[in-house]
Design a protein that fits this description.
Length: 214
């Protein structure tokens, strides 16, 4: 994981979030607090604005500072969750990168991503099947790890990861939410996609597309 790519991804993610405003807002109005889009747009914009400041830094420090910025700029429950993901990746990268020089970049990134997702799960005390962003991130992480372990190319990994994100998002439609405002809706939340899962699906797609263009 290189600093230049991480920062290019932050710019692409912010642009994609803005482009999907209507989709994300409509989902959040249906079962959320109605402020999810505003929050993630603010967070992605704040991170994108750090490009020049972060460019000279090593990847683990970049990830850590992204996490800190998200924590301070995103309101609601999403801020601490997204922050914990990036801080988890930063911690893993700092502690393990020197020990993983014999692994290829895909395996190392998959391991860091998995650690970030686990950190988010612990912070949110949530798991798959609760109609949250984890319904996208956990299957994406599993798919990424397995594909990397099998030695697949970055292009093949990206295609599989994008499919996993799409399937995870679709899975949330039939779930009863147990977290956040949607939890109070009970069965009325069935039939609606989770807005946090949608945001993560958008992010996964744009990062993968960036890799596929390389």
């Amino acid at each position: 994981m290189k600093t230049a790519f991480i920062l290019s991804a932050t710019l692409a993610v912010h642009a994609a979030i803005v482009a999907h405003e209507k989709d994300i807002e409509s989902l959040d109005r249906a079962i959320g607090d109605g402020d999810h889009y505003t929050n993630i747009k603010r967070g992605s914009e704040a991170v994108a604005s750090m490009y020049n400041t972060l460019l000279p830094l090593p990847p683990d420090e970049v990830l850590s500072q992204i996490g800190s910025k998200l924590l301070s700029s995103i309101g609601g429950a999403s801020g601490p969750l997204f922050a914990s993901f990036f801080m988890g990746m930063a911690k893993f990268n700092k502690e393990n990168h020197p020990k993983m020089t014999d692994l290829n970049a895909n395996l190392e990134t998959a391991a860091a991503f998995a650690y970030g997702v686990q950190t988010m799960m612990m912070r949110g005390k949530a798991n798959v099947g609760e109609k949250t962003m984890l319904d996208v991130l956990v299957p994406v992480s599993t798919t990424f790890t397995i594909a990397a372990a099998h030695g697949k190319t970055a292009a093949d990994i990206c295609r599989e990861v994008k499919n996993a994100a799409d399937e995870g998002l679709a899975y949330t439609r039939d779930l009863i939410a147990t977290k956040g405002r949607a939890a109070g809706l009970g069965e009325r939340a069935i039939g609606h996609l989770d807005p946090g899962a949608k945001s993560c699906q958008v992010i996964i797609h744009v990062v993968c597309d960036l890799i596929l263009k390389k």
